[in-house]
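Notes from the pairing session

We agreed to fold both candidates in a single pass and log them together. This is the raw record for the first candidate, unedited. Please don't reformat it; downstream parsing expects exactly this layout.

Candidate A
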Amino acid sequence: MFKGILIEKSGDGQSTRMAQLNEADLPDGDVLVDVSWTTLNYKDALAITGKSPVVRQFPMVPGIDFAGVVAESSNSSFKAGDRVIMTGWGMGEKHWGGLSERARVKGEWLVPLPDGLNLRQAMGIGTAGFTAMLCVMKLEEQGVTPDKGEILVTGAAGGVGSVATTLLAARGYDVAAVTGRSEEAEYIKGLGAKRIVDREAFSGKGKPLAKEQWAGAIDVVGSNVLANVLAGVKYGGTVANCGLAGGMDLPTTVAPFILRGVTLAGVDSVMCDRVKRVLAWQGLARELDHEKLEGMLNEVSFDSVIRTAPLMLEGKVRGRQVVPVSGLVS
């Protein structure tokens, strides 16, 4: 038996509790992993609280990522004792996730822990940091280089924004960081942002076009914020969008696209192919400053995850929430 957070259907809603689980309860897969570290992400908080219909089937163990040690494997790519990272592929939505002491997954979903990272650091990065790296890679694929001008990052105090700011600064970009929490300004500047921009400037109805300011942007918010970001991107610039914290709608016009040649590039970390996953994790291991990463982390005990989830939805946490799950925590 082992512990795991379990979400169950309850009438018209759901209930969430810490439960005792059995290995036989785990879903199909060819690799069994002892989970060392996981995280509490925004999507996990939505799933745990039931504020959004994230969970596709019940019962469900939430947790969209984990890092751990292989216990058993019938997959030729992994053997017992290997240290691995798991993100995406519907974990915590359609397949039992990482908020459990053990997990069973398909080996093709796993990425070997790259040299230069331990398991805690890997989850310090987690899905959010992995997504941030994919966004940075997307900007570079589109030719947005440091000499082109300033890069805007929305949600800069959050998980994706924190890592994106650090990665961009390390690559020589000037970062303008958007946040609605003025008290986090020094924290964000410590990550490498050159200046802080008040989120209020982006919250109103977007104009078709605004003054050209940014060579590119990484957006996690969507809705009016993304519409205003697009309106201010320079000719030929790119916006990498990976989130919808402000809403799924996009009240904009075609003006930025047909008059300035702006590209809106979607970034998905869930179904991303394995080759790109490995490249992104290797890049994170090489480039992310470990001291700055540590400054982003807030350790949440496994037993307090359920009561911490609502605080995340209320915007009362910053950076990355890492969760030690088992004794194998190195």
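Candidate B (folded immediately after A)
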Amino acid sequence: MDWVKILHLLCVMGWMTSIFAVPRALIYWKREWARLGEFGPLGDLTYRLYRFSAGLGVIALLTGLWLGWAWDFAPWVWLKLALVTLLAGHYVLTGRMVARARGGTFRESDLFLRIFNEISVLGVVAVLWVVVVKPF
């Protein structure tokens, strides 16, 4: 069970790296695209980070479900799953932005991307609160 927790935490950390970094990287990718007029190294790095973290997110989800099952899906686990589902939705929206950016389309402003990035921080704080406090 401890190894499942360790694997879960490791994969969550990797997935969170992408959730926090990719929206911010899109800002700099957009600037690079404007300067170069083509797909450059920053775009490649951002795309690879997003794609790599998808696998970590899947492993984090599977190990999290395993742990939830081991804890008999206590009420706080359901709340955590709901919050993680919202974070996964945030991740999917980020993926759509990355896909558009690969084609040279940057619809979102720098301000939007900065706010969008901070929303994920609030979501992670909520998840951590639920896991530590176990309110139910």
